[in-house]
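From the pipeline queue, job 12 of 40. The input is one protein chain; the requested action is below.

Action: predict structure.
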Amino acid sequence: MLYVLRKLDHVISDKETHQFIQKEIDDLMHKQFVSHTSNPIFDHRLTILMQSLEDYDIKMIVMIPVDSRLDDADIIEQMEIFIREHVTDHTEIRLKVKDNQFIINCNDKTKSIRLKTPH
């Protein structure tokens, strides 16, 4: 949806339509967050977390591969706690996996969680 809106915005020259598209993009980016990382439990909990924080202006950047280790309840709980403790208005949150670590960056605070080796 976001991709289509951005493409339309580039080809539409009408100012009123441009403003409408920009508003829709902003709404999608800030109010209608849905995580789609193909990690079902992680996606569900992250979506609920972000919806509970809808009163904040949050920019979310998710660079997460399909990784069943992210569906671990302890990892998800640590992520939720860390984000809730550090979120403020105008927050940027980055989530990524690198070198067997799940890395959460929120307002220049970082938490790394070692991912468990699958059995």
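Job complete. The CA atoms of residues 8 and 21 lie 8 Å apart.
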